[in-house]
Amino acid sequence: MGICWTCFSSSSSSSSSPHNPTSATTTTTTGALSAGQILPTDTLRIFTFVELKAATRNFRPDTVLGEGGFGKVYKGWLDEKANSKNGTIIAVKKLNSESVQGIEEWQSEVTFLGRLSHPNLVKLLGYCLEETELLLVYEFMQKGSLENHLFGRGSSVQPLLWDIRLKIAIGAARGLAFLHTSEKVIYRDFKASNILLDGSYNAKISDFGLAKLGPSASQSHVTTRVMGTYGYAAPEYVATGHLYVKSDVYGFGVVLVEMLTAQRALDPTRPSAQLNLTDWVKPYLHDRRKLKSIMDSRLEGKYPSKAAFRIAQLALKCLAPEHKQRPSMNEVLESLERIEAANKDPKLQSNRTVATRHVHHRSPLHPNQEGR
């Protein structure tokens, strides 16, 4: 869950509640977004606290999947019998009683995920509201977060193959494009930790606690206090509190760079000149030869160099300092799908770099990789 890292006084904020619910399911029909739906409001199941307490074995520590600003997320099993792990696997997010932003973000999740359905948005199954207990129940995502796959270390974490990275980028782009075109929702906290993966590495955007309804047709932006995650937030939003639909595109560009390099957007353990990833690597994204030196060494050179360079160029467009200069998410999605299509063309397989060619190449991002 995004945490407010700085706040500015602002004019009246746009309401985070979407338009009045429709009485029947509405389906969008824009190209690749046709699988998305705006649902009636009565689709969510209301769980009792007793049910969720039993499903998570009394919120036992060994069922914790993760933790954010809202609270902890637990793995649970519905309809289990005799304490065996049978039934539907779920993820249960439980509000931390000390969370400052909890109630607002809980309401935002129910408001948006309760009505918006798309294959690349995590599915909210229901919620629990009993006195001080606030919980949300989601589908379980077997592969965890993109963040863990990119930055996790250890024998249990396998590096993502190039084709899987591209698949994840396309899936996340579809989800974000759907948000921007369905009800003009600004997600506001796009980052690797909020991209979850199912058993087939299909990407689904999660955590809608900071989502806002975008500007009306007569407005260019909404004004709100600055919240999100430093390193991903668009510069115009940080500087003014003005939130544009294309502010999300900037965050997507940051994640694209993370997927190329397997380096965090912001890492205080790096030298001060390299603290901010995008500021550091932008010069490398302009040049195909330089790009090779910052690619994730765990790919071992097994990626199509032309496709990688095209994604680097797309990332640069997303990272444009002025929001008007950035492509829309529909345009980003179309670009990624073209790259994927070209990548599958047998005639272009010769563009794939040979792993052994770069094993001893010294990288500014991975200076200790020689001799591996």
From TrEMBL:
Q: Does the keyword Nucleotide-binding apply?
A: yes
Q: SUPFAM superfamilies given for it? A: Protein kinase-like (PK-like)
Name the Gene3D superfamilies on file.
Phosphorylase Kinase, domain 1 (3.30.200.20), Transferase(Phosphotransferase) domain 1 (1.10.510.10)
Residues noted as binding ATP in the record, renumbered to the chain? K94
GO CC terms on record?
A: plasma membrane
User: Which CDD domains does the UniProt entry name for this protein?
Assistant: STKc_IRAK
Query: For the region Disordered, what residue ranges are annotated?
Result: 9-30, 341-372
Query: Bias category Basic residues: which stretches?
Result: 355-364
Give the UniProt keywords, A-Z.
ATP-binding, Cell membrane, Kinase, Membrane, Nucleotide-binding, Serine/threonine-protein kinase, Transferase
Q: What is its EC number?
A: 2.7.11.1
What class does this enzyme belong to in the EC scheme? transferase
Quote the function comment for this protein. Answer: May be involved in plant defense signaling.
Q: How is this protein named in the record?
A: non-specific serine/threonine protein kinase
Which organism was this protein described from?
Answer: Lupinus angustifolius (Narrow-leaved blue lupine)
Taxonomy of the source species:
Eukaryota, Viridiplantae, Streptophyta, Embryophyta, Tracheophyta
